[in-house]
Amino acid sequence: MTMRSTIIAALAFAVALAAGHRANAADPENTLYIDLKDNCRVVIEMRPDIAPKHVARIRKLARAKFYDGVIFHRVIEGFMAQTGDPTGTGMGGSKLPDLPAEFSNEPFVRGTVGMARAANPNSANSQFFIMFADGRFLDGKYTVWGKVVKGMECVDKIARGEPPLNPDKMIRVRVAADVDK
After folding, report:
1. Residue 111: alpha-carbon gap to chain centroid
2. Residue 26 has what pLDDT?
3. DSSP string, 15-70
4. Which of 45, 133, 138, 144 is the most buried if burial means most Cβ atoms within 10 Å?
């Protein structure tokens, strides 16, 4: 194989991978809708290719309506908005067992959705966060399970604070496959 044919093969492979990833974005089973106030919807492309156990957990909890009405309890300007604790304290989670870490090379950039955890890397349960800005210091230390593909302007409006004085909440969270079109 010549150098030119090797380069062409590598480019063709990269294009095929990118096309496959874009196709996943339209997959209703791997798309999450988070409805916030003012009819604002956040659309998240879930990434089972890099975090299958975490995506399965988010799907399961969304289908059980676990996240409906849960507040954003930790919202740090220029960093991230954290939610997923039904107690609203940052100390709670679901009754399901904690998940093992699924760290990847996916970077923590604006719009990335990661799983919150305690000091133990294998302690993620139901809490997650959405990045307002790049936070590359988190790379390889927290599990990335999705990316906001629409509605980042809704995320930007979430009330700030730890906890916010008047916290915003997830009104409704659904897997797109379960929503009537």
Report:
1. 8
2. 79
3. HHHHHHHHHHHT-GGGEEEEEETTTEEEEEEE-TTT-HHHHHHHHHHHHTTTTTT-
4. 144
Residue 180 phi, psi dihedral angles, 5° rounding? -65, 135
- For the residues of 138-151, what is the DSSP string, one character each? GTTTS-EEEEEEE-
**Dihedral pair phi/psi, residue 173, rounded to 5°:** -130, 125
Find out whether 35 and 62 touch, Cβ atoms under 8 Å. no
Query: Which tokens sit at 129?
Result: 């966060």
Q: How many helices (H) and strands (E) does the chain have?
A: 3, 8
Could you give the domains of the chain?
Answer: 30-178 (2.40.100.10)
* Contact partners, residue 104, CB within 8 Å, separation at least 6: 50, 51, 140, 143, 144
Tens-digit pLDDT profile for residues 39-75: 999 999 999 999 999 999 999 999 999 999 999 999 9
Mean pLDDT of 78-96: 97
Q: Which residue has the higher pLDDT, 12 or 44?
A: 44
Rounded to the nearest 5°, which phi and psi values hold at 41? Answer: -115, 130
